[in-house]
Design brief:
Blueprint (H helix, E strand, L loop, with lengths): L3 E2 L2 H21 L5 E7 L3 H17 L2 E7 L5 H13 L5 E4 L9 H5 L13 H9 L11 H12 L8 E5 L6 H8 L7 E5 L6 H6 L3 E4 L17 E4 L2 E5 L5 E5 L11 E3 L5 H18 L1
Helix pairs in contact: 1-9, 6-7, 6-9
């Protein structure tokens, strides 16, 4: 048995094509979706990530505004840049790229974002709306990675209604909001949130129909933990250096899981591209609203 690959690259490409069509329709109505990015400092990874976002926008026809600031920018300067993005009518959604320079209160800066322009879906107001939104439609932006996970499962017809779901990792970007999203009425999964303090992770994973690994520990999830036919999504990533000093990126899921699982979202090539696609969708939806 070899697991069906949950191909995030191909699925994200299809979603981008759908978004591009919707952008055309909005522009015909005089509405242009716009993504803003605020980057403070010179971190190479952050610059690469932000550049990728602007390439995504160009691909689907979304206008993009890039604000780059030096690492020694003052708190007042950053606050001013956030205020400008909140007020800019060409920006329908934006992100503050993390990490911010040492000494800057990240949460304080993120809370200054207009919740209606929160492209990441992680503003406290929007997370609160997710907590309250047990049923019915959610009109607030959703956290991108959890939304991408649910979308990927849905597009491959992986059953979620009533499914036992084991989420490994309690971070604010994946684990916590994913549990809220998958337990909403309409999805109706039963979610167990596991973390470093959980007593018997293996036992909880063994009974799960869907496993989401977002811990950031290389090859943590072992094949003997997986129920035959389960869907497994590898989200966490770790940089590993071999004896020769060569660094590679590996996920949380051992490669041999592919011989047991029914569906497998690999890392890379799985959830990552979906996260980027969901960011574009949040910007589009904000413009539509």
């Amino acid at each position: 048995m070899t697991a069906v690959r949950l191909d995030g690259l191909a699925t994200a490409k299809a979603i981008k094509a759908e978004i591009a069509e919707q952008v055309i329709h909005l522009k015909q109505k005089g509405i242009t979706p716009g993504l803003g990015t605020l980057l403070v400092g010179d971190d190479p990874g952050s610059h690469s990530y932000v550049s990728g976002k602007h390439r995504d926008c160009a691909e689907v026809g979304i206008h993009s505004i890039r604000v780059d600031m030096p690492a020694d920018s003052s708190v007042d300067d950053i606050r001013s840049a956030i205020r400008d993005l909140n007020e800019d009518k060409e920006v329908t959604g934006y992100i503050i790229q993390l990490p911010l320079p040492f000494g800057i209160d990240t949460n304080a800066m993120l809370e200054l974002i207009d919740p209606n322009k929160d492209a990441d879906g992680l503003h406290p107001t929007n997370l609160g709306r997710l907590v309250l939104g047990v049923s019915g439609d959610l009109t607030s932006p959703l956290p991108c990675t959890p939304a991408g996970i649910v979308e990927l499962l849905a597009r491959y017809d992986v059953p979620m209604h009533g499914a036992e779901v084991a989420v490994i990792g309690r971070g604010v970007t994946v684990g916590r909001p994913l549990g809220l999203l998958m337990s909403r009425k309409g999805i109706d999964s039963t979610v167990t949130l596991l973390h470093s303090g959980s007593r018997d992770i293996e036992h909880a994973v063994k009974r799960a129909d869907i496993v989401v690994a977002a811990l950031g520990v290389a090859h943590f999830v072992q094949p003997e933990w997986i129920k035959p036919g389960a869907a497994v999504l590898d989200v966490g990533i770790t940089r590993v250096t071999d004896a020769e000093g060569k660094a590679t990126l590996v996920g949380d899921v051992h490669p041999d899981v592919a011989q047991v699982a029914g569906f497998l979202s690999p890392n890379p090539g799985g959830v990552g591209p979906m996260t980027r696609a969901m960011l574009l969708r949040n910007v589009l939806d904000a413009a539509s609203r």
